[in-house]
Structure formats: C-alpha cells, structure tokens
Design goal:
- There is one protein chain.
- By secondary structure, this protein is of the alpha+beta class.
- It is built from 3 helices and 4 strands.
- It has a 4-stranded antiparallel β-sheet.
C-alpha cells in the first residue's frame, strides 16, 4: 500500500478529520471523565481496528487516550489510516 502525500493528509484533516499529522503519523488525543470511560473508548476503537485489520498505537493515561495511526509497512500514512481515523471520529470526542 502506497503512502499518501502530506498535502493529501492535510487536506483530509482540513476537511473535518479530527486528527493531527505528526510526521508520518496521524495523532489524536481523546479525553473522558475517568479511567473507565477511557477503557470503554479503547475497547470501541479496538473493535473498529479489528474489523479493519488495521491497528493504532494506543497510550492510556487515566482519562486520556492518545492514538497514533500509520501504516508501518509503507512507512507513511495511507488511505487505510484515513479510513480508520474517520471511523474512530464517529465514536465522538469525549469531554
């Protein structure tokens, strides 16, 4: 799978994708009311990721979850990353 040009990723973000581009990764931090909410969010992300067979790196810090998406085999952000990011955005923004 080929990586996308940075301008294509930036265009997707400008078009409403609620992520930031940091180098060759899409990054999003979600905040909830507590640790239980963070775990529930991670589980919901996990279901989407399993269905897509594409998995983000996940960091949980009490009520905050940071997700990082990149296609490691391409060494870049690909359409699969944008597609999963959009699905994750559908879960909501937390608090």
């Amino acid at each position: 799978m080929a990586g996308l040009e940075p301008r294509a990723v930036d265009s997707a973000i400008a078009g409403g994708l609620k992520w930031q581009r940091e180098g060759d990764e899409l990054v999003k931090t979600w905040s909830g009311p507590d640790f239980a909410a963070a775990l529930a969010y991670v589980n919901a992300v996990g279901e989407l990721a399993e269905h897509a067979n594409h998995h983000p790196d996940i960091d949980i810090r009490w009520n905050k979850v940071t997700l990082r998406l990149s296609t490691h085999s391409a060494g870049a952000i690909t359409q699969a990353d944008l597609d999963l990011a959009a699905q994750i955005d559908g879960l909501g923004d937390g608090t």
